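B., you asked whether I could sanity-check this one before it goes into the benchmark set. Here's the sequence:
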Amino acid sequence: MRPSPVQFVLPRPGKAISGMMIAITVLWVGLALSINWVEVGVGVAQFMAGTTAGVLRGQVWRLFTAPLFHDTSSPGHFLMTLLGLYFLAPTLESRWGARRMLIFLFGSGAFAFATQVAVGALVPKLSQAMWFGGLGMIEAVAVAWALQNRDAQVRMFFVLPVSAGAMVAIIFVLSVLNVIALNHHTPEGLVTPFGGMLAGWLFGDRSPLRRFYLKLRLRQIQAQTAALRAEAAVKAEAARARRAAGPPLRVIEGGSKAPPKDKRYLN
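And here's what the prediction gave me:
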């Protein structure tokens, strides 16, 4: 009896991932056409792209718009972001829901670029004047997915099967090699991938921040439960005391009285 062939099932992205992929694609196509063919739209690109000087001046929105903007002269740049979202993020969305998935994507992308700005300010050789792209966001998705699916395997380049841990190790080693080589040709910057991996660990299900939040929330619920139980005990004790004292009776004096002389008061 021959073993059944292994079936490769493509993932089914939910609303959050589908919306993000559509937004990135439409944005790239629109900007690529306007910049490369009509020679307009440069202002939009400059507004969305991240700049270290701009963020340090308070232009914080760039941390959130830069992950959506990709190199308009390189289709592979935005396609790699789409592939990372398509193959890894649907599992997370099915567990988290659309709302948390979008918060994770934008939060991790902003955190990754904020790490690039902070480390670049401390180490000038790692600084980059302009940065953009979804690499930091995808690194966060990869780490969060790997921590959630430790026993799963992925097919690198659609052929080579590797474990989730090995995938993260390969990503980390490649990022380290880029730093050693000072490869500033990466649009996202040299530090952004490490910020993305850190965000995936901090904001995922295995996050120490999440464990701290859940413990804090548990303590709050326990305190509220204890207060309600104490209040219920006080009410029960008061009810028992009332029952032990007997019903609240009034003594009404009996006996007949002489009718009043003025008969008008009888009615």
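One thing to flag: The chain has two domains: 15-206, 210-238. Otherwise nothing jumped out at me.
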